[in-house]
Design a protein that fits this description.
Layout lengths: L2 H15 L3 E6 L4 E5 L12 H12 L2 H9 L3 E8 L4 E12 L2 E8 L1 H49 L8 H26 L6 E3 L1 H16 L4 E5 L7 E3 L1 H17 L10 E9 L2 E8 L6 H4 L17 H11 L3 E6 L5 E8 L20 E5 L3 H10 L4 E5 L2 H10 L5 E5 L7 H11 L7 E5 L5 H9 L4 E3 L4 H9 L4
Parallel strand pairs: 7-9, 13-14, 13-15, 15-16, 16-17
Antiparallel strand pairs: 1-2, 1-5, 3-4, 4-5, 6-8, 9-10, 10-12, 11-12
Helix pairs in contact: 4-5, 4-10, 5-6, 6-7, 7-9, 11-12
């Protein structure tokens, strides 16, 4: 065998081993399959002949004639639909001789799915950032609303309005603000990073997701949450557990058509079972057939007219990352039952003990926040204490340079130019005696630096919106 024959044989072996389909197409549209790819093991996968037929239909005559004329490489794509899957193929067309082009057809289905998955994850991360920002702005605004209502309540009770609707109106407004507060705090569960796993109160996470999805479920079914009493903490992160619960509840709701909520039910239960906590989500939808159960957790598999089929796939991945399991069964009556297990956390970390400011007899308070309405409303709540306010870190530093006789420095974490962390570090370096007098407040801690900072210091963090009781609780400990 000559060297040229050896090289030709080697080249042929390489081409035959490639996953690509290689063929030639004539000016007249006649094609010849040169190197079919290895036979696919997927029963639903198109045959090489079907692929080449669709590919030729996509490029002939326009692209074939143009490549023959310009002698330049061109490309296009073709899709082949199956009942439960769409196959994606990329086609490259190159000139061969005067009347023939060569085509290389590559199955890009997996690459397309990976791109969709990456886009989905990026979108979820983006939604987390948006949720954190929305919660932060809501809580900031609620702070002066709640504080003003707290200040208004005793004034109404002591006025002529006390015998009319005044007190009820104030209480109704307080209840409305409390509901908005719960919504904002539920949103923050989705904004927290996965980070390191730790003991998480899974019952609290489930309750938050139930509240957030009430409006989605209500037109379709009754949402029943079975109270099985206390359950142990599980290992995980709040964001991942929230995404798991949210996906399962939303999947259950969407399995039931709108229009007959009195006849349908989404049932949620959480219970301890030895070394695991068991979450069940049942619905009275059409259920999942044995055939579909084999594929329901596959990526990009969906029976819905909308969506890309990643919800349950991502959910299973999150559960397995936490050491748990998920199965789907028939509901006792009708519909589907998803059963999830989470390993019980070995030990619940004791809450961090925060330092409480030790005070001076005068009880002077410095409040630092960039929102003027927050400054005025909190100052009003803290009467009759002597309150001084600063609307920026720079003004607070200037003030502290000449006056440091404060029992408490109530400082916002996140401000536009410099943050509360910057103020704390400057004060700690210049005036170490002030470090223990800081109490931070925040509408939502959602930067890596802020989370690392709070893990490092012992100072207390109050979550906005602040109520009179929150402030009095801190003040009562000043002389403790």
């Amino acid at each position: 065998m000559t060297n040229s024959e050896i090289h030709a044989k080697g080249a042929t072996a390489i081409l035959e081993a490639l996953p690509d389909l290689i063929a030639t197409v004539g000016r007249n549209g006649q094609w010849q399959l040169k190197y079919p790819p290895p036979v696919s093991t997927g029963l639903e996968a198109p045959t090489p002949e079907e692929v080449i037929t669709r590919a030729v239909a996509a490029i002939h005559p326009d692209i074939v004639l143009r490549v023959l004329q310009t002698r330049a490489l061109e490309g296009t794509r073709v899709l082949i639909e199956r009942a439960d899957k769409t196959f994606h193929y990329e086609i490259r067309v190159t000139p061969s001789d005067a009347d023939t082009v060569g085509i290389v057809v590559r199955d890009s289905t997996e690459l397309h799915q990976l791109r969709l998955h990456a886009a989905f994850q990026e979108r979820m991360a983006g939604l987390g950032v948006i949720a954190a920002g929305v919660a932060h702005e809501i809580n900031n605004s609620l702070t002066f609303v709640v504080a003003s209502l707290d200040a208004l309540a005793p004034l109404v009770s002591a006025s002529a309005l006390a015998t009319g609707e005044g007190p009820k109106l104030v209480n109704d407004a307080r209840e409305g603000a409390a509901r908005i507060t719960r919504i904002a705090r539920d949103l923050r569960g989705f904004s927290k990073p996965t980070g390191a796993d730790g003991p998480i109160d899974v019952k609290s996470v489930i309750e938050s997701c139930v509240r957030m999805l009430q409006s989605q479920v209500r037109p379709r079914a009754r949402l029943v949450v079975e109270d099985s009493g206390p359950v142990p903490h599980v290992m995980g992160s709040e964001a991942r557990l929230a995404q798991i619960a949210f996906n399962l509840l939303l999947n259950a709701a969407q399995a039931i058509p709108e229009g007959a909520p009195e006849s349908n039910e989404v049932h949620v239960s959480l219970r301890a079972n030895g070394s695991v906590v068991v979450l069940t989500v049942a619905d009275t939808g059409p259920g999942v057939s044995p055939e579909l159960r084999k594929r329901i957790f596959d990526p990009f598999f969906t029976t819905k007219s909308t969506g890309i089929g990643l919800g349950l796939f991502v959910t299973r991945g999150l559960i397995e990352d936490l050491g748990g399991t998920i199965t789907v069964e028939d509901n006792a009556t009708r519909g589907a039952l998803f059963v999830v297990t989470f390993p019980v956390a070995r030990a619940v970390v004791a809450p961090k003990k925060h330092t409480t400011p030790r005070g001076l007899p005068r009880r002077r308070v410095l409040i630092v926040d960039d929102e003027p309405l927050i400054l005025s409303s909190l100052a009003r709540l803290l009467k009759p204490l002597k309150v001084v306010t600063a609307n920026s870190v720079a003004s607070a530093i200037e003030l502290l340079t000449g006056d440091r006789e404060f029992d408490l420095i109530l400082c916002d974490m996140m401000m536009p130019d410099k943050s509360g962390m910057d103020l704390f570090e400057t004060a700690r370096d210049r005036w170490p005696e002030l470090a223990g007098r800081f109490v931070f407040m925040s509408g939502g801690v959602y930067t890596d630096r802020a989370r690392e900072f709070l893990d490092r210091v012992d100072n207390m963090l109050l979550e906005k919106p602040l109520t009179r009781d929150d402030l009095l609780s801190v003040i009562s400990k000043i002389d403790g």
